[in-house]
C-alpha cells in the first residue's frame, strides 16, 4: 500500500494536502479519513525526536530476523531498544 501517495491525495485532503494542519484530527471529520490517519509529517517528528537523544541502545538478545508478513512486513520479535535522552 502506498501510504505516501494516499496521505497526500488532493481528493481526500484538499489542495493543502502537503501542509500540516492540526484540525485534520478534529472532531467531526469523516470516519474513513480517521481510519487512515495523516502521516506525511511522521519523518519530521522522528527526526526531531532523534535530535533529543544521546544514545539509542540495542537491548535485543535475538539477532536473527524472523519475518512476520501481514499488510506490511515486520519483525516477528519486535525491536527492543533503549532511547536515552540528552
Automatic annotation (TrEMBL):
One of its GO terms (molecular function) is iron ion binding. It comes from the Eukaryota. InterPro entries: Cyt_P450_sf (IPR036396). This is Uncharacterized protein. It comes from Cladonia borealis.
Amino acid at each position: 500500500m502506498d501510504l505516501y501517495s494516499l496521505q497526500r491525495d488532493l481528493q481526500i485532503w484538499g489542495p493543502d494536502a502537503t501542509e500540516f494542519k492540526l484540525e485534520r484530527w478534529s472532531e467531526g471529520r469523516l470516519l474513513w479519513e480517521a481510519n487512515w490517519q495523516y502521516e506525511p509529517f511522521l519523518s519530521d517528528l522522528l527526526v526531531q525526536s532523534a535530535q533529543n537523544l544521546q544514545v539509542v541502545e540495542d537491548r535485543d538478545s535475538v539477532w536473527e530476523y524472523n519475518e512476520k508478513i501481514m499488510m506490511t512486513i515486520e519483525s516477528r520479535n519486535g525491536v527492543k531498544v533503549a532511547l536515552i535522552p540528552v
